[in-house]
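thread from #wetlab-drylab

HS: before we spend reagent money on co-crystallization trials with heme C, can we at least see a predicted complex? here's what I'd submit
DV: go for it
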Amino acid sequence: MKLNNVTRLLLCATLVIFAATSCVKEGPMGLTGPAGKDGTNGKDGKDANETCKMCHNPTKVDLIAVQFQFSKHEYGEAAFEEAGNTGCTPCHAQEAFKDVVKRNVSSGFTLNPTTGRYTLDYATTADKAFGELGCSTCHSSIHATYGSSDLPSLTTVAPVPMVMLGGKKIIDLKADGGKSNLCVKCHQPRPQTNLQTGNAQDWVAIAANPTGIAYDANANSATTNIIRPSYRMHIHYGAVGGIYAGMGGVEFAGSLPYTNSTHTTVASCIDCHMGADAGKSNLVGRAGGHTFFAKGNLTTCNAAGCHTTAVTSASTTLWATPRAEIKKLLNDLAAKLSVGGVDIMNRNANTNEALGGVNLWAGLTTNNYDGYLNVYDVTLNNPNLGSAIYGNTTGPFQNPSPGSTWTAEQKAFNLTLPKLSLTNAQYGAIINFQLCLRDYSLGIHNYAYTKALLTNSIAKL
Ligand code: HEC
Ligand code: HEC
Ligand code: HEC
Ligand code: HEC
Ligand code: HEC
């Protein structure tokens, strides 16, 4: 309300009169005074909504979150299955992964003076052994400042001491600022432990002595043998990291040297697995971007000026020929890994999860090997469970360590089965077979190293 000067004066006089009389007797309440002058406008605040929109918009985080639904990191179930397990969760659960990175947990083995045996250090603590793999597994700074520096800001790109070798070799994939090291921290093979010491198996010694005995089925002792074969005598699933880097194989001397393909130094996992722009709109079917799948997407071969001719699944020199060659070598090695006409490697044609025992590598070999061993196990490899799970018609080998829960009948059946001894050559060749099969790519990741491991292993058998 605006008042002219005359009105102001009149109002002032009235106020003075009221003030003078008020000390005599409480009079009636006066009229409400005029409103004061409007204050100056406040300074404009920062619009929080704008910084949020930098990431929370339909082409960035919103889209990437949808792509991520197609990533096995999200829909895979291992994070739930392994929750609480301090040895498994460093690769299977978000909080455990962040914990081993933060504390820089060693990949070495330490001697326990009480038991006199070695144990692997690479583990989280019970209170951190949980969490589904999600955005902040790999992106360490989401919402740290709400600024653009919060993404991608990767949890780690540091070189990775190999768990399989007790940290004795270090993978450092330098292309693309070392971002592949993030992937390899989890996508790496796991150790085989020595039966006598509990320490990581010494592959150099095993490769140097191929005629030595790794397991003698007629002398089932833990003081002379270095391993006991079982269905799950394996290097786990993360073979890619070792093969890609050209490390972790049992390097028998042979006709081929252990060299690496060009990919090892010039390409990164992100180049081929995350599409051209690392997660925006270039999905090819279910592949690329934050699906992390390479399968079904060969457009990346021509990105970043890598291969100049377009690569398709029909390309010979860059796809069909090398893959057929590695597939043949896998078939040939599996054929050599047999005793008395019985396969050492397990066959499994089943890709249907509902039937149990899914083979992620079905189709990579003619007989659908899965890298496990054809050794009798009442729950994992039992002929009486039917051919859906048990695909090998030749029958399993005897299990040298029958389970304590097996029935007398199962134990008796086990004893009717043929025994399986292993030379160092056979043991090493099994490990190389698992690495090259479970690498998935039939030589695309590292053709030279894959071919050398398979060729030299075949020659040793
Ligand atoms: C640097 C990028 C970035 C900025 C800036 C950003 N966010 Fe986010 N925000 C993310 C990411 C990445 C996620 C995880 C998305 C997912 O899990 O699907 C997320 C998740 C969320 C969630 C889901 C709850 C959660 O924690 O998972 C909310 C709510 C959210 N943001 C709110 C905001 C608000 C409000 C702002 C602005 C004040 C903001 N964000 C700014 C990247 C960002
Ligand atoms: C925290 C550990 C971790 C990191 C880091 C990680 N992965 Fe994975 N990845 C896994 C696990 C565990 C699975 C399987 C999940 C399951 O089955 O539940 C997986 C699955 C995958 C698959 C699907 C494999 C299949 O069997 O079909 C691809 C492809 C993949 N990851 C690529 C990558 C790439 C590329 C990177 C780096 C940008 C990466 N991963 C980083 C742990 C990790
Ligand atoms: C060094 C990291 C690492 C450790 C430790 C590890 N895993 Fe894994 N595991 C992986 C990766 C990587 C994959 C997926 C690889 C792929 O599919 O290419 C995987 C896959 C699996 C799968 C297959 C999931 C599927 O989709 O079929 C199971 C089951 C599994 N792990 C169980 C375990 C258990 C149980 C332990 C502990 C005894 C364990 N893992 C420890 C890295 C690890
Ligand atoms: C397995 C690891 C991994 C997970 C899980 C992951 N990211 Fe990424 N993300 C990466 C890597 C590696 C890059 C960097 C790619 C590059 O440098 O080209 C990246 C890049 C990004 C970028 C930058 C892309 C661009 O082109 O600007 C955004 C945004 C992003 N991620 C969001 C997310 C969100 C949201 C989630 C969860 C829904 C998520 N990421 C989950 C590994 C991951
Ligand atoms: C030169 C391109 C290239 C690079 C680099 C590369 N990959 Fe692959 N990767 C492939 C191809 C091709 C396949 C097989 C796809 C198929 O069978 O059609 C594959 C398959 C895989 C698979 C099985 C699931 C899938 O996506 O098909 C995993 C897991 C994997 N790679 C992880 C990695 C990791 C981890 C790295 C980095 C250490 C890496 N790859 C680097 C091309 C690449």
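DV: The pocket of heme C (ligand 5) is lined by residues 180, 183-184, 187, 240-241, 244, 263, 267, 269, 271-273, 293-295, 440-441, 444-445 (CB under 6 Å).
HS: ok that's useful, forwarding to the group
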